[in-house]
Each structure stands twice: as structure tokens, then as C-alpha cells.
Specification:
Radius of gyration: 18 Å
Order of helices and strands: HEEEEEEEEEEEEH
Shape: globular
Helix content: 10-25%
Largest sheet: 8 strands, antiparallel
Strand content: 35-45%
Amino acid sequence: MKNLTLYTILFLILISGGVAMSKNIEQPFSQGDVNPYSKYFTGTTYLNMLCTNDSMWNSSIGNVTFEPEARTNWHKHSGGQILLVTSGEGRYQERGKSVRIIKKGDVVKIPPDVEHWHGAGKEGMFSHISIEPNLPNNKTTWLEPVTDEEYNK
């Protein structure tokens, strides 16, 4: 009986993808590994760098995938940022403005030095392509975490 219980638990873990694994969402690029910049995020996010800065392109492009309720800290980019929403429903907010719901197909153009945050909605996973133009002079300044009260507005 003990072996049957153990096998049943193992089977359930295998078919559910395990406790620590995320559910995959349909998106044009793979979600990548756990985000190495996690200290600037609340919740679990994944990063797949599609293009890193070099002297020819002067931009950085990454696919960022967010678990439900995961989000960036407040931050700003000295050279601006462009978000291309590829899957799910997310949230975007500029400091002092209302939260904006963003969905697949939306483009968010963030001017230089505008403090903002972005992340997933409450229910499902969310992904976007993050484009940081104007490199190498575009620097990201990470600020404080987004509070639950700010997120829930």
C-alpha cells in the first residue's frame, strides 16, 4: 500500500509538471530560465535574451515571462523602453497615473526617465518583449518594489 501511495504521488507530480515548474503559455519565443535579475522583481519571472547589446545594433531585446501577480520594481530607463505584449494579460503603470491593463498585441512606448512598473495580472501568466533602445547610454535605475496596494489599484 505504501508503494502504491508513493507511485501515485510521483505520477501526480510528473503529470502536473512538478511543484516548482511554471505552466507554459503560448508565446512566440521560449520563456527561458529564471530571471537572473529576480532581486528587482516580486514573484517569479523568466528571461530569454533574444539580442544583447553590441556595437552594431545598440539595443537589448529580451522575452520576459511573468507568473501570475509577478511584477517589476518601480524603475526607469535613461534611453526609454518599448514593450511588445505577446501573451496573456498584464499591467503597466507610470508613477502618478492609473494602472493600465495590457494585452497581447499591445505596444507600450515608455519615454526616457519615466518611472514605471509592469507585470502579470492576477489570474494568468503574461509575457512581453522588452526592447531597450539607445544603448550603450540607456541605463536602468531600479527603485523600490511595487506594493500590493499599488498593484491592486
